[in-house]
Amino acid sequence: MKKSIKAMLEKAIDYAGLFPPAGLSIEDALANYNVYRHNQESWMLSRFICPTTKFSEFEEVYLGLINNEEESYSISALCGKPEKPDQFIKCFNEETNAINCFVKSNNGKIIVDVLEMCLPLGIASDSDGFINALAGELKTNSFKNIGGNPTQVYFEATLNSDWQDELKSVINVIAGFNNKHLSPSLSERKTIIGFKFRCGGVKAEQYPSIEQTAYCVKLCAEMNVPLKLTAGLHHPFRHFNENAQTKMHGFFNIFAAALLCHKHNLDENALIKIIGDEDRGSFIFEENEFAWKNQRISVDEITKGRKTSIISFGCCSFEEPKYDLQKAGLL
User: Fold this and answer.
1) pLDDT, tens only, 318-330
2) What contacts 249, CB < 8 A, 6 or more positions away?
3) Count of CB atoms within 10 A of residue 175's CB?
4) What are the angstrom distances between the C-alpha of 76 and each of 60, 126, 188, 293?
């Protein structure tokens, strides 16, 4: 396996087996995750995504799996969505308190260092109010005690017909918060605020267009906002999917677009070409660098970019990405 592939995919997959289309029980999802943690491709695996509403079920199941484990379980907590902007503070506080209690009750066997929340439509219209409210929440003791590592928070936008304005507003608010309240260096931050972008679902209409995806990637790159992806990314390269009856995004397409955008300051048109490329031959993995056609990036730059620009993607299957990579001769 080439070093460029390892750099591109190390700890890239957040396992979301509880969610559609897999929709597994928590018993089966945790059993799978436990197997994946110990197989040959475990280097690609990152966190187990668990809704806060499933914490009690998680505790009932996991004890039999991890009592003899030396390593802690790393969890990304999926929080409830506030229905209206004025409910954000109450909802955010309740969710962080629930996470804190969950961590404390499990004696260091569980680390929750990622929090994901979808924001209600229009919350970013009052950017100063949102930034101040979030800053207040980040100063609370309950939030600081989530896990042992720097806490990562990823906010997802609710999109409608005015998707450009909503994406820009939310990402701009995140960037504004980071610039105002956090250290300029990601490596020195106790909290990292990023953006979560949904790349698909169970229906064709849930898949964002190439243009929407490129717009999001470019905004995050311009504003230095870390990007996390979710849903619809079961396969490395863009292709037509018979079950969904639509074109599905490839995780290599979007990862390559994000990394090369940071490296070469690519414009949206260039990103559209990368994200929409269905030719596997355009993606060139060498020992010490990766290239999409003539746009190149070194392994060291990929490693850095994976920590600061394109973080991971949630997927309800670990086997499908692995199978496709093996079939393509990339593993």
Assistant:
1) 999 999 999 999 9
2) 199, 200, 207, 208, 213, 232, 233, 238, 275
3) 18
4) 18, 28, 21, 35
Burial 182-215 (b: 16+ CB within 10 A, else e): beeebeebebbbbbbbbbbbeeeeebbebbbbbb
pLDDT band at 281 (very low <50, low <70, confident <90, very high): very high
Determine the Cα–Cα distance for residues 189 and 175; give it in Å rounded to an integer: 14
pTM exceeds 0.85, yes or no: yes
What tokens appear for 131 in the block?
């930034």
Main-chain dihedrals φ then ψ at residue 111, nearest 5 degrees: -115, 120
Partners of 154 in the β-ladder: 116, 194
pLDDT tens digit sequence for 12-32: 999 999 999 999 999 999 999
Which tokens is 74 given? 């790393």
Enumerate domains of the chain plus CATH numbers.
Answer: 3-327 (3.20.20.70)
317 bridge partner residues: none
Q: Among all chains, which residue has been given the structure tokens 């990368």?
A: 274
